[in-house]
Amino acid sequence: MKNLGNMLKQAQQMQARMQEMQAKLEATVVEGQSGAGMVKVSLSGKGDLKRVAIDPSLMSADEREVLEDLLVAAHADAKQKVEAQMAEEMQKATAGLNLPGGLPGGLKLPF
Fold first, then answer.
1. Domain boundaries, the chain
2. What is the mean pLDDT of the chain?
3. Which H or E element spans position 63?
């Protein structure tokens, strides 16, 4: 029973850390860019689009296709940064928890 009590305590610690991590991610804004900074996209830590900035030189009809490609690339850059930050925060949230299994922090689902 002592082992079960320790596991429950660790699970509660992890839950508290996860809540802290989620609050931190909600407050985080990450910027991705493409075209040497000509297109910038800002995403929240949860992946919500917050802002798009486009260099005026790309606002001509001739540059439409380039602009579309740069927007996609800037979004992909920002998304990768959000995912990296989320992984880092997840690692911090589960650090020191000695839970058995293969999920973050060792937590393993029963199915």
1. 2-95
2. 83
3. none
The answer to whether 90 and 104 are in contact (CB under 8 A) is yes
Side-by-side strand order, sheet with 39-44: 29-34, 39-44, 49-54
Q: How far apart are CA 107 and CA 33, in angstroms?
A: 36
HSE-up of residue 68 (Cα within 13 Å, Cβ side): 4
Q: How far apart are CA 94 and CA 111, in angstroms?
A: 21
pTM of the model as a whole? 0.70
In this structure, whether the domain defined by 2-95 belongs to CATH 3.40.50.970 is answered with no
Cβ(26)–Cβ(44) under 8 Å?
yes
Query: What's the token pair of residue 78?
Result: 């920002």
Q: How many CA atoms lie within 13 A of 43 on its CB side?
A: 21
Higher pLDDT, 101 or 108: 101
- Tokens read off for 12: 């509660």
